[in-house]
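I am writing to request your help with a piece of structural work I have in hand. What I wish to show you is a protein chain and, alongside it, a tokenised description of its three-dimensional fold. Could you please explain, in whatever detail you think fit, how the structure tokens follow from the sequence? You will find the record immediately after this paragraph.
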Amino acid sequence: QVQLVESGGGLVQAGASLRLSCAASGGTFSTYRLAWFRQAPGKERDFVAAISSGGGTTSYADSVKGRVTISRDNAKNTVYLQMNSLKPEDTAVYYCAATRWSAGKEPATFGSWGQGTQVTVSS
């Protein structure tokens, strides 16, 4: 089972950019499909973006499409989430997740999770 640790969150103003990182250990990183989810207070955990094990296929939630880019560096065992033009509604705890078998977007299909990193966007 791979272990995941997120970093890069913070407090920014609307319109700013942030890059989140998720470092993995304890597993064969290149065999995992990776994703970012986010959870705002009182709301469910929502899919943000995912990337295939080889990095060739990505998918995004409609709410972030065009503003967010997911990427991975298999040599560094790290996945990234570049977020631009941030909005107050992007405020949430962002989680990195990994799966070896799911091609979907449901949190329950991801077996490994990080502890999350807080992103707060002020207006």
Observations:
- The mean pLDDT is 96.
- The CA atoms of residues 33 and 53 lie 5 Å apart.
